[in-house]
Design a protein that fits this description.
CATH superfamily: Alpha/Beta hydrolase fold, catalytic domain
Strand order of the largest sheet: 1-2-4-3-5-6-7-8
CATH topology: Rossmann fold
Number of helices: 11
Number of domains: 1
Radius of gyration: 17 Å
Shape: globular
Number of strands: 8
Largest sheet: 8 strands, mixed
Length: 297
């Protein structure tokens, strides 16, 4: 599939005014894959089921002896996505980062607006901590899950709880007030999103909360005390500034944050189009970051 085909499919299936429940069903129909189907292709692949305060968590492991652990918070604008529709992506992350990957089924908007997803992510992290203290731990997430990962780091810091070694944020949605300049600057170059998409979808999750609160829009947070961050964003996506502004603010507060920009790339390109040369470069950056932080003190 080409970038142009990707844009045509996503913009057709996930319109700004389409019902969130309709889009959720479409996301699952096109993304969901059974464990059995994957294991027929990859017999070494292992799955396990876990539970944390009522939150279902699926672990995926594609390597025989994983040397690290990743808590992965899936994307889907806070109202789509599930462990089942992210199995392919979790498997790829497990293989490339030599990790066991935990994917929680956090509650979705609009039925469950903020802070439901953040509460469930915290519960999942506490579970991962109890299961995997002996190996380096990481956060990862894409789109809404990338922003949620950053919000979770802030909440852990504020609660005085243990942090992961680092966080990998792919095309993170960090500003639900939609104030980044790239939202308008990249209009027309982004083959999927418009301002209308982002504004409509943000309302599902924000609900009655203040969109400027750092737990909702972590771009406005104080990043003091956070671990190193690797952010990835497509040059042509509307959410480019959601990553660039986090990098800038984190650097001002003495936190290491690096943005890998995919030239001419779209939202979530390493996950949706992994065969592209730019995707291979992104995966190399992810693997290098994980390896470096695993060995850091």
């Amino acid at each position: 599939m080409s970038l142009r085909a990707y844009g045509l499919i996503t913009s057709t299936l996930f319109g700004a005014s389409t019902s969130p429940l309709t889009m959720r069903a479409r996301f699952e129909r096109f993304g969901q894959v059974s464990r059995e189907r994957l294991q027929r292709r990859f017999p070494q692949l292992r799955f396990q089921d876990h539970a944390a305060d009522g939150v279902e968590v699926e672990s995926v492991c594609a390597v025989e002896a994983p040397s690290r652990v990743v808590l992965y918070l899936h994307g889907g604008a806070f109202f789509m996505g599930s462990p089942a529709s992210y199995r392919n992506r979790a498997m790829r992350l497990s293989y490339r980062c030599h990790a066991v990957v935990f994917v929680p089924a956090y509650r979705l908007a609009p039925e469950h607006p903020y802070p439901a997803a953040l509460d469930d992510a915290l519960a999942a992290w506490k579970l991962v901590m109890t299961l995997s203290r002996e190996r380096p731990l990481f956060f990862a997430g894409d789109s809404a899950g990338g922003g949620l990962s950053l919000s979770l780091l802030i909440r852990l810091r504020n609660l005085g709880l243990s942090m992961p070694r680092g966080a990998i944020l792919l095309s993170p949605w960090t500003d639900l007030t939609i104030s980044g300049e790239s939202v308008d600057r990249n209009y027309g170059r982004d083959l999927w999103f418009t301002r209308g998409h982002l504004e409509s979808w943000a309302r599902y999750y924000v609900g009655r909360a203040d969109g400027h609160t750092p737990y909702v829009s972590p771009v406005f947070a104080d990043f003091t005390g956070l671990p190193p961050l690797l952010l990835l964003a497509g040059e042509y996506e509307l959410l480019l500034d959601d990553a660039l502004r986090v990098e800038e603010a984190a650097a001002e507060q003495g936190i290491r944050a690096t943005v890998h920009i995919g030239k001419r790339m779209q939202h979530d390109w390493p996950l949706t189009l992994p065969w592209l040369d730019e995707s291979r470069l992104a995966w190399n950056a992810i693997r290098a970051f994980v390896e470096e932080q695993s060995s850091a003190r």
